[in-house]
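Data availability (excerpt). The following record was deposited with the supplementary files.
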Amino acid sequence: MSMEQAIEYALSEAEPTLPTSPAPNRPSSDEAPAALTRREREVAALVAQGLTNGQIAKELFISERTVDHHVQKILNKLELPSREQVASRLAE
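Predicted structure:
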């Protein structure tokens, strides 16, 4: 393809085609959720015991904000809407 043809093609009004496969960074619904890290498993176990973020922070010697971040990551990875469901998911 010549430079002129490439420019003409790029400026054409043809609509781009959409990819038919899912995006590589986005897991399909058939794939299992991402595995929890060691620290996320520790936090999840304490959440399952009913501890608050403040109690978990003191137990693990980390900030409460860090615990909150871990809890959000856990909920996202396990596809759970609330921390109350973490215990039942860990039991599976």
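Summary of structural features: The helical segments are 3-11, 38-48, 53-60, 64-78, 86-91.
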